[in-house]
Amino acid sequence: MPNSSKKILLIEDEQSLSNVVELNLKLEGFQVVCISNGRTAIEHAHKVGEYDLVILDVMLPEVSGWDICSMFKSVADTPILFVSAKGTSSDKIKGLRLGADDFLAKPFDLEELLLRVQVLILRHQGKKPKEQHLEIGDFNVNLLTFEVKNEEDLITELSKREIELLHLFVEHEGEVLSRDFILDQLWGKDTYPTTRTIDNYILSFRKLFEVDAKNPELFHSIRGVGYKFTG
């Protein structure tokens, strides 16, 4: 089976739903590990990098899915798909801000879940950078550890989204990228945050990488369109 080498961590406390999802994932050829308790999931955090995807419920015993997502994303960039009865826009936005890659409200169609699983895994595979470092101005960005260094001094650590956005700009150096294009590449068509999200990332990049954030030489605003990176 094409998915036989793919491993999914399923964190869901509703046993009947967990059983159904686990069965269908296994029928698709995935290896599945199930956890039903938030505390146990946190204890499993050091292993999250071993998985190709995490399916995560929000409302769990002892520790919430929100906290688990934050913990997991601080350890590895494994994609996370939230599944939850809390399916309002504010819940989805909160999940995305915590670093989740997708959000599916309960009750959901199993076929849709399986399609989203496949898309997230393929998208994540496609984003894995071949190189390990980026040179941004006078700084070195480690794509594996997310660390930013100036010569040998550690300046800060970036989030997964920030790393992906920097990598996208470097891949398209000298090209004008619209906000919609960036959102589509990093979040997908069904999970847009607002375009203001990109503006906030650029402001952070300028403060970090530019000599003079008010007169940027790396991250340029193109009025009415988006941004251009010139390294």
TrEMBL record:
CDD domains assigned to the protein according to its UniProt record, in alphabetical order: REC_OmpR, trans_reg_C
Modified residues (4-aspartylphosphate): 57
GO cellular component, one term: protein-DNA complex
Record's keyword annotation contains Signal: no
Domain Response regulatory: 7-121
Keyword Oxidoreductase: no
Protein name: Response regulator transcription factor
Organism listed in the record: Brumimicrobium glaciale
